[in-house]
Amino acid sequence: MDFEKQTVVVIDDEPTTLLMLESAIEALAHVITVSDSAEAFSVVAKTQPALVLLDVSMPGLSGFDVCEQLKSYANTASIPVIFITSHSDSEHETTALALGAIDFISKPIDVTLCRMRVKNHLTIQAQSDMLSTMNGKLEAEKKQLDVTLRSIADGVISTDASGDITFINPVAQRLSGYSEAEALGQPINVVMNLRDATTNSVMLNPAIYALEVRRPVAMAYNATLVSRHNQIFRVEDTASPIIDDQGNLLGAVIVFQDVSEAVEMAVKMTHLTNHDQLTGLPNRVLLHDRVMQAITRSFNAKQSVALMLIDIDNFKYLNDSLGHQVGDFIIASVAKRLSAAMGDNATLARVGGDEFACLLTDNGMGFSADSIAMKCLQKGREPIEIDGKSHQLSLSIGISLYPQDAANAEEMMRHADTAMYRSKSKGKDTFSFFSHDLQHAMHHRVETEICLRNALDNDLLAVYLQPKYKFSCNDVISAEALVRLFDENGNVIGPDAFIPLAEETGLIHLLGKQVLRKSCEFVAKCNTKGVDLKVAVNVAAKQLADPGFATEVKQIIDEAGIFPSSIELEVTESALMHDFEQTRTILNSLASLGVTIALDDFGTGYSSLSYLRQFPLNVLKIDRSFVIDMDKEQQAYDIVTAIVQLALSLDLSIVAEGIETKAHYDSLQELGCHYGQGYYMCKPITLDSFFEKYIVKSAVA
Ligand code: C2E
Ligand code: CA
Ligand code: CA
How far is it, in rounded angstroms, from Cα 441 to Cα 417? Predict the structure, then answer.
């Protein structure tokens, strides 16, 4: 304790007493002496000493008068006063105590005693000073805490050890709907009505739990606070028990926040990431989730799950030609219709541009994927109004089932896609189930494509020739080139297995070129033997649609060094239906080169003769489907008769293909056909065999 800083004022009219007192206590305090009692008050008021030593008997103002003066002013009232009395003054002690004195020092002064008394009083004074500053500090801290708790944005409630409220801040009052006066003394679970956000069941108040377990606890994740006025807030909080140094439980405090906005935001965000903006439907991410859940559930329940993939037919065309806004409109309308077609146990999702997926789960009653698919197809066909015009759409659907044909979500998606592709190739506006045959076919397709690309890259395609017999003399002066592919085991793959694929993938251009080149080279080889062979080469629709086709043909013929008249190009009716003007231009330039044009598969298309006559045709090939039935069915025979007559009247050369029997041969010869081609005479054979069988012989002859 720092006595140096304490001041003692000594008031006495006797200089000797003053001197003695000063010397007695100067080691303990800073001493100020006053000999004129009239100045006493102002000195004390100014210096604010820790202690005043005051002589009772003084001329003028007596010690009592001074003491009275000091006690009557606030800034001096609490300063302790010790009276200095002589024995004669002893009767005045009662008066002195009544005036507020705390002690007496008697004259004559005993220095040691005096010093001890002053020292004790100074110590007491110092301690009381310290106590009052500490009190003041505590008070200030308490105030600050109070202000803080009242002004923070969190709700704060504290309770006593039995859970009754002792403090509630304004935020907690607002959220609970209870005023401070209403809340104080109430059990906390009455004021804080906490409920589970999903089930609305009452939740244990964490403050009560904290009191029970004597450690901090956090509120359950999905808590809501229902206010007295039935307002609902999402809240998040923590509660702590209040335990003193001795380990006594004094109460609990709970701090909570209104997170309604944050939760709403989070819900919105998850909705956004899981849903498609345009249709509001779940997106691929959410669907995948649901499929996985459904698979797990159905695995346990031994039930089935179906995944339907739904694609809008020709959407790309509509979108490109009518604009993206219309495209969006179409997607939104289809989404609406599909939603209407689905039952309760279905999840419809938008998984891509114009692709939807529907997850069907068995809710115990079973489900029929066929009937839902049928409903969807029907909904898809309903006319849709675009710019005042009615359009008709259609859908293609693929269905995959778990556990029947897929082991997991990814496989379901893939297989539904395969099945959807099947619907497209069946002609759209239909649905298909995935099957292992289908998967096999898809596999096969991929393998064939690899094989075909390899053959094209390495010049491994083979051309077979099937001779055409001239009915009048039974001679062979022409043949049809038919392409062959070999698989890795060297087995022959027929063109029906890869020509459509080549057309889809665009490989047909390269394929056609190679077949034509090989055919021309073979003709050149025959020419060196002095044999003038004519080879007919098949041309696909896509090739005819290529503006550079005629130039390409000319170049290949020129490179082989043969006459263009040695080459015939077989085109189908459907190829001619593509783009009238362009096809005619190309055929005209081909004709002017000197190659001849044959119309293949005649009778299978629907084109009128007047239409066909506008093209430079030289030959008409009767499709083998008519030839094969002509000896069994009168109708087929009649058709062949009509075709032959028609061709003769148009001055076209006639080739009948697919002659398998002598009866076919005889009938066609009788009808006046010019050429015949078929297994009855000869199957398609390799170039070498053909050379051996037909060229070498005739060269010798
Ligand atoms: P296509 O032009 O109608 O060719 C005639 C098909 O009939 C050939 O089948 C031939 O082998 C077959 N055929 C011949 N005689 C008979 C017979 O007596 N009975 C039966 N049942 N069939 C007979 P292939 O070689 O399998 O060719 C199938 C189709 O593939 C061809 O039909 C043609 O459209 C296409 N194709 C063949 N090679 C090429 C080519 O190099 N380019 C293009 N674009 N298509 C080709
Ligand atoms: Ca042909
Ligand atoms: Ca044909």
Answer: 14
Entry pTM: 0.54
- For residue 496, the ligand closest to its alpha carbon is 1
Q: Is residue 538 lining ligand 1, measured as CB closer than 6 Å? A: yes
Gap from CA of 450 to ligand 2 centroid (Å): 25
Say yes or no to pLDDT of 1 above 60.
no
Look at residues 229, 261, 293 and tell me which one is the last residue of a structural domain.
Answer: 261
Range of the domain at 48: 7-131
Here the CATH number for the domain that contains residue 104 is 3.40.50.2300
Ligand 2 centroid from CA 391, angstroms: 38
- pLDDT tens by residue, 357-395: 999 887 666 678 888 899 999 999 999 988 888 889 999
**What distance in Å separates the CA atoms of residue 226 and residue 176, rounded to the nearest whole number?**
7
Sort residue 387 into left (φ over 0), alpha (ψ -120 to 50) or beta. left
Backbone angles phi, psi at 86, to 5 degrees: -95, 165
Residues 614 and 535 in one domain: yes
Task: Reply yes or no on whether the pLDDT at 2 is more than 70.
Answer: no
The verdict on 11 and 60 lying in the same domain is yes
**C-alpha 330 to ligand 2 mean position (Å):** 42
Q: What distance in angstroms lies between residue 552's CA and the mean position of ligand 3's atoms? A: 24
Residue 496 lies in a domain: no
Number of the ligand closest to the Cα of 493: 1
Q: Which residues contact 215 (CB under 8 A, 6 or more apart)?
A: 240, 241
Assess whether the C-beta atom of 624 lies below 6 angstroms from ligand 1: yes
The torsion region of residue 428 among left (phi > 0), alpha (psi -120 to 50) and beta comes to left
The per-residue pLDDT of the chain, averaged, comes to 90
Beta-carbon contacts of 700 under 8 Å, excluding residues fewer than 6 positions away, are none
CB of 494 closer than 6 A to ligand 1? Answer: yes
Tokens of 668: 């066609």
Do 175 and 102 fall into the same domain? no
For residue 364, the model assigns a pLDDT of 61
Ligand 1 neighbour 483 (Cβ under 6 A): yes
Q: Which range, 122-126, 572-576, 586-590, is most confident?
A: 586-590
Q: What's 615's domain CATH number?
A: 3.20.20.450
pLDDT per position as a tens digit, 216-265: 887 677 889 999 999 999 998 889 999 988 889 999 999 998 888 888 88
Average pLDDT over residues 643-668: 93
40-59 tens-digit pLDDT: 999 999 999 999 999 988 98
